[in-house]
Amino acid sequence: MSEESDLYFRQIAVGEMANLVYLVGSRSTGEALVVDPAWSVDALADQAEADEMKIVGALVTHYHQDHIGGSIFGMEIEGLERFMERCPGPIHVQKLEAEGVAKVSGIPRGEFREHSGGDTIELGGVKIRLLHTPGHTPGSQCFLVEEEGQPSQLVSGDTLFLGSCGRVDLPGSDPEQMYESLNGTLRKLPDETLVFPGHLYSEEAHSTMGEQKATNPFLRVANLDMFLQFMGA
């Protein structure tokens, strides 16, 4: 980001499943949101405080335990419940994901702020556009962070990884929806858009949409039938 940028953006590796968590906010307002607060909630809050930023809410990509907390593979993962204790503020979820988030986190659905695809959240000169990208789960969403005069940044959760995409063989997954999310929604973003995934499954921690369009096989398929064959669906 240039010196003129208002964007506050941190990518932080957490946990035992190669998760990447993000702090996104406005330097001029001193406010930030956490994307998928899990594993190390207090450490995330401490980092924001060290950066002189106040966490004012959370953004949830999808309901899986490694992103919002809960029990998985014999592990108890700290998540949204601890987040609400440490950083009271709205938890922004896609409306189709709200039931799943409530079930996994144990937090009543009424505590969430439910969104539709295309909704935006603004912090100072930073706009966060919520993109509904079903496929991995019914209400998976990505966050397009926009600032005038700067390249946009896509926080892609478990929809788009660098060189691959999210699984479609889990409960609630849908390979046809994943195809449309990747090739009908994300592929339309400008080549200069920076891509920040929900897991570090590659050597690099970020990329560009142009590079992914050129090299990611899941963005290079010619049609749905080819995609389904490629996914083994």
Structure description:
The termini are far apart. The longest helix has 11 residues, at 175-185. It is built from 7 helices and 16 strands. The radius of gyration is 17 Å and the shape is globular. The protein has 233 residues and is an alpha/beta fold. The strands form 4 sheets. The protein has a 6-stranded mixed β-sheet. A 6-stranded mixed β-sheet has the order 9-10-11-12-15-16. The chain has helices spanning 41-50, 65-68, 80-86, 98-105, 175-185, 209-215, 224-231; strands spanning 7-14, 19-26, 31-35, 54-59, 70-72, 75-77, 91-94, 112-115, 120-123, 126-132, 141-146, 153-155, 160-161, 164-165, 194-196, 207-208. The chain has a single domain, classed as Ribonuclease Z/Hydroxyacylglutathione hydrolase-like (Metallo-beta-lactamase, Chain A), CATH 3.60.15.
CATH C-level label: Alpha Beta
What count of helical segments does DSSP give? Answer: 7
What is the H/E order?
Answer: EEEHEHEEHEHEEEEEEEHEEHH
User: Would you give the CATH topology?
Assistant: Metallo-beta-lactamase, Chain A
Strand content: 25-35%
Rg from alpha-carbon coordinates: 17 Å
Q: What would you call the structural class?
A: alpha/beta
Question: What's the end-to-end separation, in Å?
Answer: 41 Å
CATH homologous superfamily grouping: Ribonuclease Z/Hydroxyacylglutathione hydrolase-like
Helix content: 10-25%
Query: Whole-number average pLDDT?
Result: 96
The CATH architecture term is 4-Layer Sandwich
User: Order of strands side by side in the largest beta sheet?
Assistant: 1-2-3-4-7-8
Number of domains: 1
* Coarse shape: globular
Report the major sheet: 6 strands, mixed
Uncertain segments: none
State the total count of DSSP E strands.
16
